[in-house]
Amino acid sequence: MNINFAQEVPLSWYLILSAVLFSLGVVGFLIKRNLITVFMSIELMLNGVNLSFVTFAQQWHAVKGQIFVFFVMMVAAAEAAVGLAIIIAVFRVRATLDVDRIDRMKL
Amino acid sequence: MNVVPLWIIPIFPFAGFLINGILGGRLPKWLVTTVALLAPLAACLAVISNTFGFFGVVPVPSFAPRVETCPLPWINVPALHVDFSFVLDQLSLVMLLVVTGVGFLIHVYSVGYMSDDEGYARYFSYLNLFLFFMTVLVLAGNALVMFVGWEGVGLASYLLIGFYFQKKSAADAGKKAFIVNRIGDFGFLIAMFLLVANFGTLTFTEIAAKLGPIGIAPGWTGGVVTVIGLCLLLGAAGKSAQLPLYIWLPDAMEGPTPVSALIHAATMVTAGVYMVARTHVIFDHSPFALGVVATVGAATALFAATIALVQNDIKRVLAYSTISQLGYMFLGCGVAAYSAAIFHLMTHAFFKALLFLAAGSVIHGLGGEQDLRKMGGLWRKLPVTFAVTTVGVLAIAGIYPFAGFFSKDAILYAVFEHGINGKILYSVGLLTALLTAFYMARLWYMAFMGKSRSEEVHAHESPVSMLGPLVILALLSICGGWIGIERFGAFLAPSVGARVAETGGWRFLIPGTQYALSLETVLSIIAVLVALEGWKIADKFYRSKPSRPAQWAAAMPSGYKLLANKYFVDEFYGATVVKPLLGFSNYILGWVAEVGIVGGAAWLIGGVATFAGAILQRWQSGNLRSYAAWLAAGAAAVLLFLLVPWPTVLASLPAIHLGLAGH
To answer: Chain B contacts of A102, Cβ < 8 Å?
Structure first.
């Protein structure tokens, strides 16, 4: 079996999917009020970017893009750990996760 | 010949200044004293060793000037080359011996005088700083190096006049001295600019070489040389307290008394005389400038002497007397008798330092009392001070054979020989001699004779560290004149030229000497008689008929008032210079410039910032989603800028336009 996906699924489809994912992330980031949803939207943007990375890596037969994806995932994992810790801390202090009500540095 | 390099001389006081100035507060007092005394002593020894290195075993004629130049040029531009150079010739040697010698004695005296003062280390660091700059001034080989010393001694003078800076009058006096000196410095600076512009050099010897001997280069008489001479005179008048810039010196008495002795009597104020002697070639080429020097000197001598007649503060009497004696020196310079002026400078340094230090001893003994009216009968309580003051008074009055007689005689004789104008100036000088004898005798009678006028004061004699220098200075005031007679002019001739021959007319006073009755003999007899007459009048006024001063004052109330208020010169300057200037500062600069322009600009900048902040703070809402929206909008804008092929789009725009127009 020698199936070449690139021939069956055109490059532009991957890119369109990547752009859709990214845009969903941006829109979610802008309109959602729950801090956790906002956080998830960021992950969505990251993964949209990741998809375009691997797409181009496949297209140009360059392994750099795939390596880059691993970096992004790693940073995203670290970010998730820190970010969630911050969210928990914020919730403890403010008793809310509504971003519109978390608009002050001072308590 | 093993001589000490010249740069060594100022280094010692400078090191003393640094040590006491930086560490003085933490060092024990004995160490501060040691450093403070070693500095002038070492400088003095360096000068003395240079003197003997100079002389060798051969006397005066073999004396050759020595120049030392810093290997690196100081200013080196196409039009001007200035080195940092020192020169030791006859003139600077005499001056250095006076400065370091008298300076050392006054340092010793200060140890006793300032012993209880909180600012002990500060005082000595300033005093050493003064000595450093003074030696630089004296050693200077060109006008610019001299100017460095010139400004430096002005600074030291300012610091020491305002030594008791918590006292407003002392701080004000310091400022007054500094500001008045600035006016003189302005003249000095202009003179230097003119020297550079016309001669292309500031080195004294080069200027002399370019000017040439008198009479040979007539192109250099008058004109620009006169202007340079007058500008230099302005500088000298500021530093040496001559008319019309003398006003700072009486106020300078706010400083500690040894400072008045060292800086404001013996050394710094004579820098003007020294400068005129140093630049004498310029004055030699301009008879007019020379005449102005003589006139200013004579006028100052008489003017200050008349004020001194009625002052009641012991230090003020001496201050006006100093101004008057400086006038004598300028008078001597003004008739080209520079050696006589320097001679008088030297003897004056001895006896005026002596008188000031003796006055300090009196003030010290009376616990700070300076008013002559509250003294009296002190000869019994302060015998040593009394004895040395007597010597000083006799010396300044010009009584034979004390120091002042010889130098004053030399000046008066040179003045008398100086044509028709000389006769007028001579009579002014003689009148001043009369007044000098009178006011010095007055001081002597009021302070030491008669009955004590304030009983509660327990006067006590000063410690040995103060009396020692007094006795040495008293000896110098007696013998100082003998050093110079008949030799001084010849000795200084290589430096300042010999325009007036010394005849030795005083010789008749030595019993058994062969002499011819010369003009100078007659003149010196007249001078002594005049001085004795002045003393006799004072004797009448203040001993035999003590009611007479009051009677005279009552008989001429306006005249007395005029003198007692020092001719209202301070008030005159206050009304014509200080007040308009203060008004200008307060109203024009204070309101228009300060409040209007500077303040307005500050308000404008502040207002713009406040206004911009009021608008921009709306962006900083703290709302996470608005930040994100701006971020996204920004990213979109960047993408738009990067991805849209702007050249193509722009190029297609006219086409679209034309296409539309085509319809």
So the answer is: 624
